[in-house]
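fold-stage: in
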Amino acid sequence: MASRKRSTGSGKSKGSVAQARGKAPSSGRAWESFKSLIALLAIFLAIRAFVIEAYRIPSGSMVPSLLVGDWLFVNKFIYGPTIPFTGKPIRLRIPGTAIRFYRDPHRGDIVVFESPPQSDQPEDPTPTLVKRTIGLPGDTIYMRQGLVYVNGIAQRQGYGAHEPAPEGAATEYSPLFDWQHRFEVKGTRFGPPPARPVHDDWGPLVIPPAHYMMLGDNRYNSKDSRYWGFVPRVNVRGRPIFVYYSYDPECGSGVCPLTDIRWSRLGHLIR
């Protein structure tokens, strides 16, 4: 009797152990899979926030450098990463030295940034834009007859200056230009600012510290710093690296046949 009881008890114990062992791996695998997904998501968000991000060109303001329908990879680390949801830059440097792992925008850089508030489009007042850096902090900048001068030196006009100005565009006035009066300087060797700034004649303006002036390459089809002002350093998000995909927007939907892909644009380095 005793031996039978021991045998029965032993069988129940083995069954319980087997059942426990059968359940543990299943729940354990689910937990491990969940942790792996969380880790992958965290890595993806970190790369997107601090290192690289995709961006689509929606307008022709940067023609011929960038075309409508170009998709870019943007280097977000070059100008210093920002704290997510705050826009505040993270200052990365070697402790005890002046060596830092990022730099400020240079004149001529094409830059992705958050626009200063645009009062004329309340539905999207601070869109993410891409323009070329023309003026740096402390520069005196102005335009005469469509030619940009920085500190009295005429800037090269190789960026989209080949097309003639549309009729009336050069003398176009917009109330959005009036912000410039606060930064105008008088009595300089660069001449007096016009009483009313227009598209091709404005300034001279002095760019304040930690701000930049951004203009589109396609000057007569670009809403840029002339309209909404200087870009604060904290708004700078990154620098485009290359075009990884490009399609002809005339196809409408953006999902185009192979014939609508601009094959020659794939891998195009952005300068």
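fold-stage: in (second)
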Amino acid sequence: MSGYDASVLNSADTRLLVVTPNWLGDGIMAMPALQVLRQHLNPEAVLDVLARPGQAGLWRFHQAPGEVLALSSRTRELFTESRDIKQRAYTHCILIPNSFRSALLPSLAGIPHRRGTTSQWRRILIRDAVDLQAEEQMHQQWENARLLLPDVPADLPPPRLTPPVAARAKAQEWIQNLPRPLLAAIPGAARGPSKQWPADRFAQVAQLWQEETKGSVLWLGTPSDEALCRSLAEKGGPDARSLAGKSSLGEFTALLETVDTVVANDSGGMHLATAVDTPVVAVFGKTDPRKTGPLHPDAVVVKASAEGDRRIARTDAEAVQALESVSVEMVSEPVLAIASRHG
């Protein structure tokens, strides 16, 4: 993608396709730079995104894309999809994922200028190679800024999502009889035990919230968290409710927008809360908040271990131990402090 500079952004003829990350949290950490890109792009230029089916809905809540194209997970549809994309006549493509497949589709579609990181297997598919070595010790949002922007600014805005009107109405319906303030507790994590603080400690924080604030607790998560969240909600009485597995992504987003505080693991739910401007207390074990921490000015990260690792196995014993070293008091204190600040 030689020549990716201000002239590309200024041209009304630019037709730009951004291939987005495959995980919810990674997608949200790409949004600050994409918001800046949209702001500086010629109003007549095209900015679309290509996302996995499970992530496409997320991008429809974001202000930057014109169209959101859903990428099939089936390899046999790759050539059909490439023909469809070719008809859209994109002039430029920016690839945030580092996978071979994410680079193959724009290449097959004949997009002439393709920008992204290179590896041994996809070097021939990238026209404008980006070296992210300088950003290795920085938050992941700066890696995305380096990929998406010709000139990286000194500051980036926080990510912002707008839930659909119908989702907001459904969220209000679910919480209408619950006393405020509202705490959303998200005990799950897609990465498994290596990112999950013990569930009984989430329950203790929720109990302290109810005792101290006289408010309510919403237990939120994916369908895989449904049984866990239901059992935790049952311990909290009538002012605790589990909606895990019951809400769509839009409704989940709207619920997080509605509550007063969120307590979560290092997870997609944590990042989703930041994108609707809700303060979050995030529990980290072995993962590194300097790389993947929540992008919200009022966010609090609780971490007992000084170690930080970007990639860990699902059942990493050291990560589990690091999470177990985080006490209930370490989490409940900032949760209740946020409640007191916001009345």
